[in-house]
Every structure is written in structure tokens, then in C-alpha cells.
Amino acid sequence: MMHIGVMGGTFDPIHLGHLRAAEEIYWALGLDRITFVPAARPPHKEEEFEASALHRYEMVSLATVYTPYFSVSPIELSRPGRSYSVETLREFRKLYGAENAIYFIMGVDAFLDIATWKEAQELLSLAQVIVAARPGWRLDEVERHMTSEQRQLLGNPRFEYVKISAITRETAKAHHEPRPVLLVEVVSLDISSSEIRQLVKEGRSIRYLVTDTVAAYIGKNRLYCSGQKLIGECEAST
Ligand code: ATP
Ligand code: MG
Q1: Which of the listed residues 185, 203, 227 is the one where a domain comes to its end?
Q2: Helices (H) and strands (E) in the chain, counts
Q3: Same domain membership, residue 198 and residue 176
Q4: Residues 144 and 45 in one domain
Q5: Which residues make Cβ contacts (< 8 Å) with residue 52, sequence separation at least 6?
Q6: Span 106-127, mean pLDDT?
Q7: For all residues of the chain together, what is the average pLDDT?
Q8: For the residues 31-40, what does the mean pLDDT come to?
Q9: Do 61 and 20 lie in a common domain?
Q10: Which of 83, 141, 228, 236 could share a disulfide with 39, CB 3.0–4.6 Å?
């Protein structure tokens, strides 16, 4: 039996907050691998200073290349139209079969929105959802702020708070249907992609917020630079 983590996101760009959360969850749950799934973005939504899907995919690739148990999937990029996590998880289910366990990893900010996602209840049934802590959001808000409509939409899931140090692979495996949503306290880094894009735009350093390979890629491809800025200005960040 394989235990596979799946972490979706726009990864614009991928940063050490994503990587560290994934790393801790990988070891704590004894996963076999974690696959990062960059989301495509509908073309009309692409904003001027955001990176294309291919650039984002390439950066996830560069950030994970030295970690044998991290990989990147183009599954949402090759699918036309909007990216829905439920469809991605259905495809992973098909790929891995019912005998393997899938863990869908998301930050608490993303989970707070989940009732608005396509087929949210179905999504919760396709994978064991792992919600990772993130600075600025409290894990206990997840339950407190959920309205009864939202709970119902999600099929009244059970929530379980766990310290990363208290998790074992057995904890994760022991959960039978209906699975609780696991809220895990990871060492969360206060890093966001939007902050990184802002720093690059201002020509400031992003070193130690992203891997060196990603910083170099951003510089080389002049991502997140404003068109009006002088050429030299964006380069300080690399
Ligand atoms: P943006 O600022 O553009 O929204 P982001 O930093 O939130 O970017 P996303 O690509 O939106 O990054 O996030 C992908 C997933 O990773 C989401 O589930 C999000 O909650 C989670 N995540 C992002 N940053 C962190 C972090 N520092 N610690 C833990 N989880 C995170
Ligand atoms: Mg985000």
C-alpha cells in the first residue's frame, strides 16, 4: 500500500513555506511521496505581474528536483478549463486505485474556503484531507467559523487536531470512514507568494524565502517585474 500526498496551489512562486509544510507532513505521516500540483489559471484571469502556468510548473520542478520524494504533476495544466481539485483527486484515485491512500494537503487559509469549492463533499471523500497551520490563521478557527450550511455542504466532517510530533503513520492509517479532517500544527513559516511577488517588483531580496534555483529562475526570466521599471531595478532580487 502506498501513501501519497497531493498538494495543490498556484505556486506563484513556490516558496519555503510550501516546502517546509510538505516536508514535515511527509515525515510525520510516513508518506511515500508528495506530488505538487500547480493549478492552471484561466487566460482571462492572468494578471500582468503573475507568472504563466509553465513558469510556475518549471519553478515547482526546480524547487523539488533534489528531493527524491517530491514531484510535480502537470495534470491541471494539461486539462482544459478551470482547475478543480475534485477532478484532480478523481484522476489520482483512478491512477493509484482504491488500495492506495491519498492525502490532500492544504493550508488553513485554503481550507477555510473549501465549502465554495466544486463538489467539496466529494473531495473530502476522495482523500484524507490534511490542513496545515499557517501564520495569520488559527487552526481552531476552522471549526469555529464554519456555519451550519457549510458543515452540511461538507457532509458534517469530523475534525481532529494533531501536533505534528504526535502523528505517526499509524495515526493516519487508523482512520476509517468517515475520515476526520486532520488539522496539523506544523512549524509554519510566515511566507507567501504574494509577498515574494511584491518584493521582486520592488527590486528587493527574496533570498531564503525561495530556493536559490527558484530565485535564479525568477531573475533570469524577469518574472514579477513591472514593465515600467528600469531593467536594473528587478535584478537586485536575485
Ligand atoms: P498567494 O499569496 O499568491 O495566495 P500562497 O503563498 O498562499 O500564494 P498558494 O499557491 O496560494 O501560495 O498556496 C498553495 C497551498 O499552500 C495552499 O493550500 C496554502 O494554504 C498553502 N500554503 C501557502 N503558504 C504556506 C505556508 N507559509 N505555510 C503553510 N501552508 C502554506
Ligand atoms: Mg494563497
Answers
A1: 185
A2: 12, 7
A3: no
A4: yes
A5: 46
A6: 92
A7: 88
A8: 95
A9: yes
A10: 83
Residue 78: what are its φ and ψ, rounded to 5°?
-90, -10
**101 C-alpha to ligand 1 centroid (Å):** 23
Using the mean position of ligand 2's atoms as its centre, give its distance from the Cα of residue 73 in Å.
19
Ligand 1 atom closest to 192 (CA): 6
Q: How large is the average pLDDT for residues 93-112?
A: 94
User: CA distances (Å), 3 to each of 33, 45, 96, in order?
Assistant: 7, 34, 10
Judge whether residue 174 has pLDDT over 80.
no
165 and 233 assigned to the same domain: no
**Ligand 1 and 11: CB distance under 6 A:** yes
Q: How many domains does the chain have?
A: 2
Q: What is the CATH number of the domain that holds 124?
A: 3.40.50.620
Rounded CA-CA distance 64/43 in Å is 26
> Same structural domain for residues 200 and 178?
no
| 164 and 205, same domain (yes or no) | no
Considering every ligand atom shown, identify the ligand nearest to the alpha carbon of residue 196 and give its number: 1
Q: Which helix (H) or strand (E) holds 27?
A: helix 16-29
By residue range, what is the domain housing residue 180? 3-185
Average pLDDT for 129-141: 91
Among 25, 187, 192, name the best residue to mutate to test ligand 1's pocket (greatest count of ligand atoms within 8 A of Cβ).
Answer: 192
Q: How far, in Å, is the centroid of ligand 2 from the Cα of 209? A: 15
Same domain for 123 and 233, yes or no, is no
Q: Is the CB of residue 156 below 6 angstroms from any atom belonging to ligand 1? A: no
pTM over 0.90: yes
- Does the beta carbon of 41 sit less than 6 angstroms from any atom of ligand 1? no
> What confidence score (pLDDT) does residue 237 get?
46
At 227, which amino acid appears? G
CA of 110 to the centre of ligand 2 (A): 7
Whole-number Å distance, alpha carbon 176 to ligand 2 midpoint, is 30
What per-residue confidence (pLDDT) applies to 140?
A: 86
